[in-house]
Amino acid sequence: MSSPNAHTTTPRDRFADRSAVVTGGASGIGLATARRLLAEGAHVLIGDYNTEAAEAAVARLESEGFRGRVTWRRVDVAEEVDVEALMEAGQALTGRLDVVFNNAGIGGAIGPIVETDVAHWDATFAVLTRGVFLGVKHAARRMIGTGGGVIVNTASIAGVAGGVLPTPYSAAKAAVISFTRNAANELAEHRIRVNAVCPGVIFTPLMHNGREDAAEAVVRQIQPWPDRGEPEHVADAVAFLASDEAAFITGEALAVDGGYLANGLLRVHPLPGAKAKADYAGITYGLTGRPREVRRLD
């Protein structure tokens, strides 16, 4: 397999002297994107709920040569006061806020609709959808005052078609796509571009849950492209959308999925152990450090 980041190892200056905020930046897609923006000259503020993971991520990035240009702040993206403070801190990096990647997420509510707790449904939308709304709101407030900027939101192929992931997650990501398009329309007059990326099956610890080989075998049944999806693939797409090369692109939801959607075989569940008919219900909080709440159904 070719290296997913073979062409991203040479630093460039597309984002020199620009500031960027990356939520969920302590791991996976967020960490890969933070690294990519740093490699191209940006000053990056990572926002994450998981303190231990964020501290480790910043230490790692500093060891890679980015000391002095990366920092972090704890944030619950579902809480407006946290998000407002995060965007304010991001602007303080250089005096303006240039790029915001609203990427933080959780697995969310799982199980059949009739067994889904409303509190778990609400918690899923609080992070995945309200978190994006708050990120756009408070990023735009600062960008309007400084002549514009770029916002990229993490949606998912699950928001485009059914049968990919649990219903609450899919519905929340569909809302992100719709919100992105409407926000792009509203904010265009302020020279703020708003786009979304829709990752397919991306190999992160959260995705394969320690069963990497099994996950890859299943993915190969449904994904036409021979290489598996890596966080760096999505980081490449985010960097492009955030760059001046995408200056005429706004309101788009870009699938980064190795042809998964094009294949159309969406009823094949990509995650190891996933079942077409779940025999469990509850909620998973991803890499936030919060324990999942799952119960087995009779």
Query: How many DSSP-defined strands?
Result: 10
CATH superfamily: NAD(P)-binding Rossmann-like Domain
- How many structural units, i.e. domains? 1
Largest sheet: 7 strands, parallel
N- and C-termini, Cα separation: 43 Å
Secondary-structure element sequence? EHEHEHEEHEHEHHHEHEE
Question: Roughly how many Å is the radius of gyration?
Answer: 18 Å
- Helical amount among residues, as a percent range? 25-40%
> Outline, from the CA principal axes?
globular
The CATH topology is Rossmann fold
| CATH architecture assignment name | 3-Layer(aba) Sandwich
Q: DSSP helix count?
A: 9
Main-sheet strand order equals 3-2-1-4-6-7-8
Briefly summarize what is shown.
The protein has helices spanning 28-39, 51-66, 80-92, 118-144, 167-187, 205-208, 212-219, 231-242, 260-263, and strands at 19-23, 43-48, 70-74, 99-102, 108-110, 149-154, 192-199, 253-256, 280-284, 293-296. It is an alpha/beta fold.
Description:
With 298 residues, the chain is α/β, with parallel strands linked by helices. It has one domain: Rossmann fold. Helices cover 39% and strands 17% of the residues. The chain contains nine helices and ten strands. The strands form two sheets. The chain has a seven-stranded parallel β-sheet with strand order 3-2-1-4-6-7-8, with helices on both faces. Strands 5-9-10 form a three-stranded antiparallel β-sheet. The longest helix has 27 residues, at 118-144.
